[in-house]
Amino acid sequence: MRKNTLVCLLLACILLAWAGGAFSSGKKKDRDELYRQAGLFSDSLAIIHEDYVEDKTPKDLIYGALKGMLSSLDAHSQFMDPDTYNELKVDTEGRFGGVGVEITLKDGLLTVITPIEDTPAWKAGIKANDHIVKIDGELTREITLPEAVKKMRGRPGEAIKLTVLRDSEKKLLEFKIVRDVIRVKDVKYSLFLEDGIGYIRLTEFRDNTQREFDNALNSLMRKKPSGLILDLRNNPGGLLDSAVKVAGRFIPSGKMIAYTKGRKKDQEMEFISDSKNAVLDLPLVVLVNGGSASGSEIVAGVLQDYKRAILIGEKTFGKGSVQTVIPLGDGSALRLTTAYYFTPSGKVIHEKGIVPDIIVSTEQPSVESRKAPEKMPGSIFAAGAFDYKADRQISRAVDTLKTIELYKQSDRK
């Protein structure tokens, strides 16, 4: 036992020495405080390892301490053990097993950012901003994001029960959902609605998003649309680079798309458009709602700032922070919030969200209306296969673009 205790103390000393070196250039007062607190940590580590009722390995204790330390910072910082780190890599590949929800911790509650379209959660009726209070009967009060992800993923065909608190209904709702393989398609729809108005539904920002989006946009542009609706509702974001490239298709090259601010100079970055074939003259409406987060908020924010698009819908989720993944030597990693995103005009996104130019609230479409339109030649979809006129936000977007076209015709006359 004493040998193990000495091992723990040695680990604590290593952490202490690292911390002292990392802060050697800081103020003496801060350094002294760090040493004092690190000493408290090493004492606690030794006592727990020596006297706790069950035998715990040094790795168990250090991993537990790191998880607690990262979770105390904010909802998006976390310590990832090797298995969790590997799951994060899987997330960007667009295919995994589970129920199909993007989740976060909001005010201490496990909260749905958005259900992914056409997944079991979407079909069951899970909505953005639902609070998941139980998973298979177990309370989620002190659950971490990695733990929640692990509980919700599983083999296709296995059922899971979610107990949800929905603010608008003031009651607990029970959902029994059968897990499935989640296949994410970034461009959900690409079609014409009426009077030459194009429509693109973009559900994620992933590795192939730019290629899929460019193909959809170019197909519509060949038909010379009178306007375009870009639907970012329930788009939880994803890869920043993909979001920047999508935004760059609608603003001149060389324009700022977003910038970040952190504690350090190297955490301050600017993201500049570089598209050589940007669509600059086409009237554009962007649809957003409470499920629009992160990358979709960046796209909406820059287009609103430059008055390049009219935003219609509801205020976005408000997830505008930068997480830097820092791999560690044993295959684990830190996911650390290092900066916040700002729109070109200086508006902060995090916890504020993007407020649309025209507020149009609407309930999420019913399960019966969530049907994919039938495909037509040239990768354009037939509008008749789903009732877009029943969607108040799309209808308002169509009316807005028709009004713009009338003004353009009047000016030409």
Quick structural gist:
The protein is α+β, with helices and mostly antiparallel strands and 413 residues long.
Defining traits:
disordered N terminus; 19 strands; Pdz3 Domain; alpha+beta; 2-enoyl-CoA Hydratase, Chain A, domain 1; 5-stranded antiparallel β-sheet; globular
Describe the structure.
The structure is a single chain. The protein is α+β, with helices and mostly antiparallel strands and 413 residues long. It folds into 3 domains: 2-56; 95-183, PDZ domain (Pdz3 Domain, Roll), CATH 2.30.42.10; 187-412, Alpha-Beta Complex (2-enoyl-CoA Hydratase, Chain A, domain 1), CATH 3.90.226. The protein contains 10 helices and 19 strands. The strands form 5 sheets. Strands 10-11-12-15-16-19 form a 6-stranded mixed β-sheet, sandwiched between helices. Strands 1, 13, 14, 17 and 18 form a 5-stranded antiparallel β-sheet that branches. Helix 9 links the parallel strand 15 (284-288) and strand 16 (310-313). Helix 1 (2-22) runs antiparallel to helix 2 (28-51) and helix 7 (209-221) runs parallel beside helix 8 (240-248). The chain is globular, with a radius of gyration of 24 Å. The model is unreliable at 1-10, 12-25 and 364-385 (pLDDT under 50).
Describe the secondary-structure layout.
Layout: H1 2-22, H2 28-51, H3 58-71, E1 78-80, H4 82-91, E2 95-98, E3 101-106, E4 109-115, H5 120-124, E5 131-135, E6 138-139, H6 145-152, E7 159-166, E8 171-178, E9 180-183, E10 187-192, E11 197-202, H7 209-221, E12 227-231, H8 240-248, E13 256-262, E14 270-272, E15 284-288, H9 295-305, E16 310-313, E17 321-327, E18 333-342, E19 358-359, H10 392-412
Parallel strand pairs: 11-12, 12-15, 15-16, 16-19
Antiparallel strand pairs: 1-18, 2-9, 3-4, 5-6, 5-7, 7-8, 10-11, 13-14, 13-18, 17-18
Helix pairs in contact: 1-2, 7-8, 8-9
